[in-house]
Amino acid sequence: MIDDAITVAITGASGGAYGLRLVQSLLAAEQRVYLLISEAGRLVLKMEEDLALPGRNRELATALCRHLNVPESGLTVFGAKEWTAPVASGSGAPARMAVCPCTTGSLARIAAGTSDGLIERAADVVLKERGRLVLVPRETPLSEIHLENMLRLTRMGAVMLPANPGFYNRPESVTALVDFVVARVLDQLGVANQLAPRWGQPDD
């Protein structure tokens, strides 16, 4: 792996705001981002965020960056079956990836190594190349199948980071709850951030 970009995948779990905020934060931090959005992920963004994304990759990147108010230069979008994308091969794929949010279906396919789509293939590449894979499941309650898949992936080296916001900082908005989780994802990806207060640090 030689690419310093970060791959972000947004799947169809509820909580599309987490994925959007992650992309926004990475681009604001001048990180290059490779973005993958599943068909179900698009549907959830439309339902939860009133965000209808164009079908073409370049137009999608433009619309999303305008929505997030960030420069477009650092964002590259790839289609669900775009097998020529860098993320599909260990010879040049990024070493860092977050699936945020991550459906339990995506979780299962990644755990099984079933690479029918680019999201699962990209995750498979990160695992086999010993990169950093962060999965943000948003599901409750969890079945034995879900828990077994999480344990299996953890043993493979993936980071399981459920979308469980904390309340010790007394959040006063949904944005604060989202930022709490996204800050933890950025920490795991090695990207400095000040999205949420740190435990033990005095309030400003």
Helix segment count?
A: 7
Name of the CATH homologous superfamily: Flavin prenyltransferase-like
CA radius of gyration = 16 Å
Instruction: Please estimate the helix content.
Output: 40-55%
Description:
There is one protein chain. The chain has one domain (about 5-190): Flavin prenyltransferase-like (Rossmann fold, 3-Layer(aba) Sandwich). Helices cover about 40% and strands about 15% of the residues. It has seven helices and six strands, in the order βαβααββααβαβα. It has helices at about 15-30, 40-50, 55-70, 105-110, 120-130, 145-155, 175-190, and strands at about 5-10, 35, 75-80, 95-100, 130-135, 160. Strands 3-2-1-4-5-6 form a six-stranded parallel beta sheet, sandwiched between helices. Helix 1 (about 15-30) crosses helix 7 (about 175-190) and helix 4 packs across helix 6. The radius of gyration is 16 Å and the shape is globular.
Which secondary structure elements does this structure contain, and how are they paired or packed?
Blueprint (H helix, E strand, L loop, with lengths): L2 E8 L5 H13 L4 E5 L1 H11 L7 H12 L6 E4 L15 E9 L1 H9 L5 H11 L3 E6 L6 H13 L2 E2 L13 H16 L15
Parallel strand pairs: 1-2, 1-4, 2-3, 4-5, 5-6
Helix pairs in contact: 1-7, 4-6
Salient structural properties:
17% strand; 6-stranded parallel β-sheet; alpha/beta; Rossmann fold; 204 residues
